[in-house]
Write a structure and sequence with these properties.
By secondary structure, the chain is of the alpha+beta class. It folds into 2 domains: about 1-35; about 35-210, no CATH class. The chain is built from 5 helices and 13 strands. It has helices at about 5-10, 10-30, 65-80, 95-100, 130-140; strands spanning about 40, 45-55, 85, 90-95, 110-115, 120-125, 145, 180, 190-195, 200-205, 210-225, 230-240, 245-260. The strands form 4 sheets. The chain has a 5-stranded antiparallel β-sheet. Strand 5 (about 110-115) and strand 6 (about 120-125) form a beta hairpin.
């Protein structure tokens, strides 16, 4: 029999703790000098800094397909809140201050949620995918991430993965937020939409920036440790001059050591290192 989580044993206490954290965040924001971006424009800024897309529905082992279909509804609702948002110099983007309460009364449905390294369901579930998309675009820009919460475990196999492992972010209303600050001297804008079964996004600006960015995953492998396996890799960001193509610097942004939570038989044998 597996370990029983505190939240499963005492759901009332867990719910109370969540509410306490929500109130704590509201109080913190009330006394903060941080200026949260709130202006939306239907007119896209002229320069595309970066663009990205991700598949909305994946057939994941042990995950009810209905939760994935409901996620699409939740994503569409979040798109309406985020699309066209302009972040001016000095302003901060807050995922939850922009999206708002993801409750059933606002049209949100039961989707997949990840809590404590376990997959479950909850109203508004699936919005992490939107956070992941935005975070990926921010990593490919000079904007500064100011709040980020990584998923700590490897929950699913790398099926159709398009980005380096671990470059996503958790979001949970509203204590687990995703935030970035516009530290540049020009406006930037987020465009997000759903098309052909994918969540699509663009980060736009008034003028081109002088650098481009590339994220690379190095030393990627799986390693047995006791009865568990761990996903090991390092993710680096290359800052590249557009004028010369030279790599100006290489930044380590993530050192992955993530416990594999899915069936170990699904790990590709050639990717296992036992030394």
């Amino acid at each position: 029999m597996g370990r029983v989580l505190f939240s499963e044993r005492f759901p009332a206490f867990y719910s109370l703790a969540q509410k306490k954290e929500i109130v704590r965040r509201h109080i913190k924001d009330c006394f903060s000098s941080e200026k949260i971006a709130a202006t939306r424009s239907a007119v896209p800024l002229p320069n595309v800094v970066t663009a990205h897309s991700s598949i909305l529905i994946r057939r994941l082992t042990g995950v009810d397909l209905t939760l994935q279909e409901n996620k699409v509804t939740n994503i569409l609702l979040a798109c309406k809140k985020i699309n066209g948002l302009v972040i001016r110099p000095g302003e901060t983007f807050s995922f939850w201050r922009t999206v708002g309460w993801p409750g059933a009364e606002n049209g949100y449905k039961e989707g997949m949620v990840i809590s404590g390294g376990h997959v479950g369901s909850g109203v508004g579930g699936g919005l992490c995918q939107m956070g992941n998309l935005i975070h990926w675009m921010v990593l490919n820009s000079p904007l500064q991430v100011t709040e980020l919460h990584h998923h700590s475990d490897a929950l699913f196999p790398d099926e159709r993965r398009r980005v380096p492992f671990g470059t996503g972010t958790s979001v949970m209303y509203n204590s687990v937020d995703y935030r970035f600050k516009n530290t540049t001297t020009q406006d930037v804008q987020l465009l997000v939409w759903v098309q052909d079964g994918e969540l699509c996004g663009e980060l736009r600006s008034e003028r081109p920036f002088h650098c481009r960015y590339a994220l690379v995953e190095e030393n990627s492998h799986f390693r047995p440790e006791g009865d568990d396996y761990y996903r090991i890799s390092q993710v680096c960001r290359l800052v590249i001059s557009k004028a010369t193509g030279a790599v100006l610097r290489k930044e380590l942004i993530l050192d992955n050591h993530s416990r594999v939570m899915y069936d170990h038989s699904l790990i590709p044998p050639e990717q296992i290192r036992r030394e």
